[in-house]
Amino acid sequence: MDNLDIFSVREINNHIKNILENNIPNLYVEGEITNFVRHSSGHIYFSVKDDFSTLRCVFFKQNNYSLDFFPKNGDKVILFGNISLYVKAGSYQFNVKNIFNSGTGILQIKFEQLKAKLQAEGIFAESHKKHLPVFPKRIGLITSPTGAAIQDIKNVIFRRFPIELVLYPVSVQGDRAAVSLVEAVKYFSENPSVDMIIISRGGGSQEDLFCFNDENLVRAIYDCPIPVISGVGHEIDFTLTDFVADLRAPTPSAAAELAVPDRYQLLDALQTLRTEINIRLQRNIHLQTNRINLLTQNLNKHGIQSLITQKRLQLLEFENTFAHVSKVTDFFKVKLNSIAESLHHSFNSRSKTTLLSYKNNLSHVDSKITTCLTSKFAEYKHSYQLLDSKIESHSPYGILKLGFAYISKEDKLVSSIGDLSKHDRIKIKFYDGSVDAEIK
User: In this model, does residue 167 exceed pLDDT 50?
Assistant: First the structure.
């Protein structure tokens, strides 16, 4: 007896519990609910049975709080969970992690299994999502040509932002639906003539929408180089195309709204921008006008404007004098022509000596006139150059070029040291630029 290993009941039950939990993986069980009890703690206790056996089950609160439905006695269900043992009572039970209606449960289980597999591969990763173009020119539609979805999409797009739609007609329900959808996605992938794709259909049962959970379709969308919007079913419906698509829309109409901008909002934004630009232009014009007025006041204050006006009058006077000289020249030319004509008519009646005398006199007169005009023109040209030099030296630019500068504060001319205080920011303007400074 001393060499016997004796175990407590608790040790035996814990040992069996470890064997069950470590050697039997999570599994699905189908049966009919009986003895259903929902405890005040939130835990649910029941059994499932078939024609031969009964299995006790527990559905803990942390797993059942998000149930879409609550089962009842007589419901045929599919359970997902693991086998365990309740150590205190020494009885084994099934720990439920999820529960499905037996009719649609198979589809849901397939959905969850494939979703978990693809998610583990990174198919649904956000890093793979492509950005949608803001202003698409052509959109490819993958949907039924006779369904309500295509009409909803066309109505929304033509109202918001009319562009070209390219329809690839497909079956969205039935045995051929998944194959048809895959062919459509591959067609646009191999013929990238559109800026984005909308894959869509209206609402339906889980069986109706299950073709959008096809693995080949999910992988075709993942490999597609064109951005894809998924708008399948209603807002509460989710398919695997929603997870792999670059953008999920709750309905076909919502997919169309997400695909294109609203032209009326764009027009409003453009009008707002145009108004803002006009305001800024008017503000800038007003600022420049004030600066011009300030410079004009500065010119008047220093008498430069009046000096320029005086020099302009002198220039006008010089131009008038020059015009008068031109008239005198024209007069002498006419006179010379007249004398030449007289000589021509009287040539036969006068001797060669007289003719030579006239020619000499004419040459002498012509020489004196030319000398006089040349001298006068040189005199007036020199006066004009002096006048132009004085105007240049008395202009604002000329004054600055001599080494002077003027100071402004906040675009206003500073004419007295009393206008400045410590730490004032000022601008010093030279003939070839300006610098900013601070009064120390």
Answer: yes
